[in-house]
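Researcher: I've been going back and forth with a colleague about how Protein kinase domain-containing protein might be arranged in three dimensions. Neither of us has a model we trust, so I'd like an independent prediction. The organism is Capsulimonas corticalis, in case that matters for your notes. Sequence below.
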Amino acid sequence: MGELLRNGQVITTTVSGLPCEITSFIGGGGQGEVYSGKIRNQSVAVKWYFPSYLNDDPNIRERLSVSIQNGAPSDRFLWPMELVDMTGSDSFGYIMPLREARFKGMSDLIRGRVNPSFRARATTCWEVASSFMSLHSRGLCYRDISMGNIFFDPLSGEVRICDNDNVDVNKRPGFIGGTPEFMAPEIVSGRATPSTQTDLFSLALLLFYILCMNHPLKGRRILHIRVWDPPAHRKILGDAPLFIFDPDDSSNEAVPKSEDDLCEAGGNALAYWLIYPVFLRDLFVRSFTVGLTDPEHGRVRETEWQAAMGRLIDSILYCGSCGKQNFYDRDALQATRSAGSCWSCSQALVLPPRLRIGQDTIIMLNHDSKIYPHHLGAKQMNFNGALGEVVRHPSNRTLWGLKNTGTAKWVATTGSNEIKDIEPGKSITLAAGTKVHFGKAEGQIHA
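Model: Here is an independent structure prediction for Protein kinase domain-containing protein. You can compare it with whatever you and your colleague have in mind.
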């Protein structure tokens, strides 16, 4: 139960003058408490600050007013809508959209209360990177990325980002420094203040958590720390950070579960790391080696993460024995001439048909695969408005095809040089050697 407001209490929006009735307590933190409320029968969330916090962060009202005036960077942010006051109170708050119940917190993921598929995890990572791209493009930085302010739908991967009262202009001095476990090393050690560059480090760290379920800098060295106090924070995360998969220094290597039953020193990451393709692992290595000491050149940009997560989604394939999602790894395939084995059942993987578009794009043609505008040349990557999808033949269940779900005609050339028009709503059989002219792009199906 909250301490600041009570159920049935009415507070007032400062601009529109509308009453907001508090209906229930949601949770609290270091800054204040969050409640659900109603304005004209519309459910909203209300964050109300501790008076003591306002003394520490005197610019917060001005910062919120600017954010409200400018509006949200995208609909993925649970952005402040309006300030709220209460007669006789020495504090205030703001209202924001209420998070839907389908969105779960990062703690639900780490503690195993939800177990999203690899596709959902990759989609969550793509959405987080895209959201921060939209924020940074406005000249803003988040300042306090942590597990507590990212929520995701375990089925679709869609995200919501809260605690947006921490957002401020890039490099502007302020009270908020961040959450230690998610701060860039230069902030932890006191050498820098929050900026878009430090946000990029925090972003990479968050993506690593989503995909590998551990902190990238907490490996063997933390087993020798008896008290996780500020000096320990500074040593491990600020002054001498070392990636648990550093290719040149194993002194902070990830520790197997047999040595650390709590899996705080990288046990989960050991289980996940080799599942992912080389191209993704290389980005994390760069982020947590060069990126630890060279923010300008070593940190991975949002656009790079977007492209990598799109490629990761395109690389998904299903094990023919147990049905678990695995990944096509072109680099490993070229080195070993093998598709590898399933991480779950250890059976040899059999590659499905795949569509190669240009030199760089390869899409695994699974039963649920889709072709999106960015595959066919659109500059902006998104996963809305599929232009093609894999479908099963209506009368011959052993045949699969690629269906045109867009509005433009395709032209296909089969392996026997037969030319076919694929009108919207029609399909072409998934046969090796078939070339498909999508308009601006051309692809070829490989077996």
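Researcher: What would you highlight for our discussion?
Model: I'd start with this: The longest helix spans residues 118-136. After that, consider the following. The mean pLDDT is 93.
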